[in-house]
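ok so dumb question maybe but i'm new to this and my supervisor (M.) told me to 'just get the structure for 2'-phosphotransferase' and walked off. so i did the thing. is this what she meant?? sequence i used:
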Amino acid sequence: MARGGGRSGGSRPPVTRNTQISKTMSWLLRHGAEKEGLAFTSSGFLAVSAVLQNQKLKSLKVTFDEVKEVVKEDAKGRFLLVTAASLAGSSEEEKTISEVTGQIDESSNDPKDWLIRANQGHSLKIDDADGLLTPITAENLPAMAVHGTSRSAWPLILASGGLKPMGRNHVHFATGLPSAWSKPQTQSADSVAAVDDETAKAAVVSGMRNSSSVLVYLDLAKALEKGIKFGLSDNGVVLTEGNEQGLVPVQVFSRVEERGGEGLILVEGGKAVKETPEGWARGKGKGKG
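this is what came out, is it supposed to look like this??
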């Protein structure tokens, strides 16, 4: 009998050290820096040396080599790691950092020479938030912009008239779907543990949760025509603060469909075409997406 009183249906694979470090860095860079007494540069970077001195990372005894490995191996490209020297001249703030650290070798392994930021997902305000994004126009529209949510959240989205940032600075849209979603889903812990690197990467797309059971496709051209501004993050996520009301309205949804379950089509061309199943509001929709 398995120890620990885990949930029935098999235990989850243990959290790896890299995942633990990644989650802690994500929290710090997106949400916790101010609370932890860390100051962003104008474009959202933190000094790596300061990040490593944060108590949460110090308690894990995280090394700079581990930070570099987490950044390199992160399938969603959540982080950007650069030398301070590479940003010299981009703003007065970065010039000051560069002057303090001096002439930096790109191969330096000294964390004092490096800066790190989260590419998207912030709830903290960044002075030059637009500097993190490439503006999206009619000339560079991504082929797809899709937001993943849950069955239980969909009735709330519909009732509010559309998508809101919900505590973050932006609403997030992926520019594609995980290719693994077209393959049979594995259920057992043994199957999950045995998945190879290629399959694991196929199950990951920046800006999309694998647990998403409702997919909201955006008519990006129509949204731009209505004056909603969008930007593309370094890791390929479409971000927007919404309209003047902080909303991405249903009217610019090209299609909303259920993933798994009955595969219901809920919205077509900005109009609801199917009533939300009663069970969804109570979190009882079929399947897990």
